[in-house]
Amino acid sequence: MMENENKKVMLSGIQPSGDLHLGNYLGAIKHWGARADEFDCYYFMADLHTITVRQDPAQLRRRVLTQLAQYIACGLDPEKNTLFIQSHVPAHAQLAWVLDCYTMFGELSRMTQFKDKAAKHKDNINAGLFTYPSLMAADILLYQPDYVPVGEDQKQHVEICRDIANRFNGIYGDVFKMPEPYIPKVGARIMSLSTPDSKMSKSQPEGCVFLMDRPEDVARKFKRAVTDSDTERCVRYDRENKPGVANLMAIYSAVTGKSYEDIEAEFEGQGYGKFKPAVGEAVVETLRPIREETERLLADKAYLEGVYRAGAERAAYVAEKTLRKVYKKVGFLPR
Ligand code: TYM
Description:
Blueprint: E1 8-14, H1 22-27, E2 39-45, H2 47-50, H3 57-73, E3 81-85, H4 91-100, H5 105-109, H6 112-120, H7 127-141, E4 147-149, H8 155-172, E5 180-182, H9 215-223, H10 243-256, H11 260-266, H12 271-298, H13 301-330
Parallel strand pairs: 1-2, 2-3, 4-5
Helix pairs in contact: 3-12, 4-7, 4-13, 7-8, 9-12, 10-12
The protein binds ligand 1.
Residues 12-15, 23-24, 27-28, 46, 49, 136, 139-140, 148, 150-151, 153-154, 157, 188-190, 199-201 line the site of ligand 1.
């Protein structure tokens, strides 16, 4: 129905390892739905990836369902986008094993996310954490996408995916299409509101704005946002010297569509006292309909089940086609 040979393909995923935050929204999801008529789109909940770090099973189930509701609430129409749960399509794990055998220990060792997570979870540096990028390569290559819309921190993983695909194609011919990362101009790297030199992430909840936060909490987080200690106290875009202000400007620009020059003009001579609450207010208004729609959808479990069942079926159809081709190329005897 949705599969169309002539349409370009877009694919991406998010780990349901925590509640979705403003970084996930501005860096990724916001850009997914915009071109659903033009592209054949696949978006999934990357639950297989989450168990590289210990998860509470009940919480994981709840988060996957909430994330699906949030995808829809953010504007991804399930009739126009294939929305599915990664673990419902076994081809992901199956292709990941094959790709593991075409991925080098050295290249995995260089992955920033592995180094960060290994440092954070010293007592659980498991093999899955290490081979995570080949599972992600499988997620991507199964659907032969043209574009993978992600935030900046995932660029390295899309690049290793291209290296793996190139290596495989070099041996067996053109099996995989070469995917391009699609990284937005504004919002690709939203920083923490409390420590603007590190990216916004759920592991630092004080500086992180969650999509389901209550409006008063969002407003409070922005009022307390760290700006800078220079005496100038003017709203000016300078990533190097004023990272906190630059980050707030990036957020304001991403949610209002205003350019940095417009923003500088709007707050000229006003200091941060007016600016910070204004950014908070704009974010509250952006998140309000998403939160309300998510809550409404979560009350209708039967509808969500219908969406993820249909999504898994469509995704599996496409994924299995690629997997069969790969199995044949490497020499597995057909069943
Ligand atoms: P994850 O779950 O950490 O993040 C999901 C998406 O949100 C983006 N993002 C951000 N963008 C801007 N500013 C931030 N502070 C910020 N934090 C997160 C990420 O870049 C990402 O686009 N490995 C992936 C999930 C994944 C995947 C895939 C993605 C698994 N398989 C296949 C694409 C294709 C991950 O951990 O993203």
